């Protein structure tokens, strides 16, 4: 459909140069995959789609997806890539970063080449924004579910190897490792977003990383130094440094609700909701893989390694929004954290917002904030109706 007019009881929109807000009622006119007009009230023409309740929001943007629906992205084959791209819109996600956790550099490079070769043949569905490498340049002390055998310093030749395909757009690393600050500068110069994570760094070391170009902190409070009144760590700097955007896994298991409230209050306008979803997400309880090693998905809670270590999550991004709203975070702030904020952070102002000229990536969130219908480029890729 080249042209699409959607009317809705409530629309979250970001008109150019203004803050994100809810208008009730509102409408969105799509032409050739791009938002041509947004407005309050009712449009002059007859709507192609009317959403009688819930919220019309920008398509969700997830910067940390290790896997989903039984597939681990680091070793996913063509079926795995096709499955995630075609099914993530069920969760409201219209663009995402496949995330490869720690492995030998050559293994990651091979996975990047495989992904590059598969990209042209992917079906309609969620956009692939590039790859997030979460490791191997992490701290052994804060390895979490990562394999310590493969952790290493970010040598220049390793960085060059990983950048070869042009597919890497986000790298999580520990800034206290040897050569890390030089690596942050090199990655930033190459247009790669750098995130501090799995780190035993002090707040001062994280500040130095931000001075070098780092702009994100991976899953705040998890696998990092925290908040101590005489020994501030990664989490403290993430909360007080306006240059840093804390990623937050809001499944209410990785971070307690009151701590999530603290993050939203202290880092207002900077929070990035992520799922950190593992291959077990969207699947029944059982045994799955993360980074080539087994994880167990229990009846309740996130997946675990055999030693009880949290190993990614089973979270949906629309569920993260619902959890935020359930904590008392207003819907605009919650949706912004899963749309506009991550899109802006990765330099994609055409995504994550309902405004004229933006890509027509949209999701109808029901009153429970769960995705009902999803459009990418104005084309329905999930849900009923038009």
Helix content: 10-25%
Which structural class fits the helix and strand makeup? alpha/beta
Q: Mind telling me which CATH architecture of the largest domain this is?
A: Alpha-Beta Barrel
Unreliable stretches: none
Estimate the strand proportion.
Answer: 25-35%
What's the total number of strands?
23
Q: How many domains make up the 3D coordinates? A: 2
The average pLDDT value, as a whole number, equals: 96
Give the CATH class of the largest domain.
Answer: Alpha Beta
Distance between termini? 9 Å
Oligomer state equals: single chain
Total helices: the number is 10
CATH superfamily of the largest domain: Metal-dependent hydrolases
Overall shape? globular
* CATH-defined topology of the largest domain: TIM Barrel
Major pleated sheet: 9 strands, parallel
Family: Belongs to the metallo-dependent hydrolases superfamily. NagA family.
Keywords: Carbohydrate metabolism, Hydrolase, Metal-binding
InterPro entries: Amidohydro-rel, GlcNAc_6-P_deAcase, Metal-dep_hydrolase_composite, Metal_Hydrolase
Domain Amidohydrolase-related: 56-379
Description:
There is one protein chain. This protein has 386 residues and is α/β, with parallel strands linked by helices. The chain has two domains: 3-57 and 352-382, Urease, subunit C, domain 1 (Roll), CATH 2.30.40; 60-345, Metal-dependent hydrolases (TIM Barrel), CATH 3.20.20. The protein has helices at residues 78-87, 105-118, 156-163, 180-189, 203-212, 234-240, 257-266, 317-326, 331-337, 340-345; strands at residues 3-8, 11-13, 21-23, 26-31, 34-40, 49-51, 55-58, 60-65, 67-68, 71-72, 93-101, 127-128, 131-134, 168-173, 193-196, 216-217, 245-249, 272-274, 286-290, 293-297, 362-365, 371-376, 379-382. A hairpin with a 2-residue loop joins strand 4 (26-31) and strand 5 (34-40). The mean pLDDT is 96. Keywords: Carbohydrate metabolism, Hydrolase, Metal-binding. Belongs to the metallo-dependent hydrolases superfamily. NagA family. It holds the Pfam family Amidohydro_1. This is N-acetylglucosamine-6-phosphate deacetylase.
């Amino acid at each position: 459909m080249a042209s699409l007019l959607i009317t809705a009881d409530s629309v979250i929109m970001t008109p150019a140069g203004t803050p994100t807000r809810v208008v009730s009622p509102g409408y969105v006119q799509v032409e050739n995959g791009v938002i041509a007009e947004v407005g309050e009230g009712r449009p002059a023409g007859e709507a192609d789609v009317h959403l009688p309740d819930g919220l019309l929001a920008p398509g969700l943007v997830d910067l940390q997806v290790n896997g989903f629906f039984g597939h681990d992205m680091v070793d996913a084959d063509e079926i795995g890539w096709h499955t995630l791209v075609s099914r993530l819109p069920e969760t409201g996600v219209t663009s995402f970063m496949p995330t490869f956790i720690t492995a030998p550099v050559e293994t990651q490079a091979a996975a990047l080449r495989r992904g590059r070769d598969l990209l042209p043949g992917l079906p309609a569905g969620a956009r692939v924004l590039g790859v997030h490498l979460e490791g191997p340049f992490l701290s052994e002390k804060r390895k979490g579910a990562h394999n310590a055998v493969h952790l290493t310093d970010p040598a220049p030749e390793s960085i060059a190897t990983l950048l070869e395909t042009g597919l890497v757009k986000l790298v999580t690393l520990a800034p206290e490792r040897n050569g890390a600050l030089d690596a942050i500068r090199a990655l930033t110069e190459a247009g790669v977003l750098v995130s501090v994570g799995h780190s035993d760094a002090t707040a001062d070391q994280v500040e130095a990383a931000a001075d070098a170009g780092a702009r994100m902190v991976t899953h705040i409070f998890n696998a990092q130094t925290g908040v101590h009144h005489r020994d501030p760590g990664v989490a403290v700097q993430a909360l007080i440094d306006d240059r840093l955007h804390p990623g937050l896994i809001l499944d209410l298991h990785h971070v307690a609700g009151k701590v999530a409230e603290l993050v939203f209050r202290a880092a207002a306008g900077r929070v990035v909701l992520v799922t950190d979803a593992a291959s077990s997400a969207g699947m029944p309880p059982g045994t799955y893989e993360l980074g080539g090693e087994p994880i167990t998905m229990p009846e309740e809670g996130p997946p675990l390694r055999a030693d009880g270590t949290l190993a990614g999550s089973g979270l949906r991004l629309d569920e993260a929004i619902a959890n935020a709203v359930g904590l008392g975070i207003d819907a605009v702030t919650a949706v912004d954290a899963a749309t506009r904020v991550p899109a802006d952070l990765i330099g994609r102002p055409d995504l994550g917002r309902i405004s004229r000229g933006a890509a027509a990536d949209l999701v109808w969130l029901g009153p429970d904030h769960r995705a009902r219908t999803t459009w990418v480029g104005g084309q329905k890729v999930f849900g009923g109706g038009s």
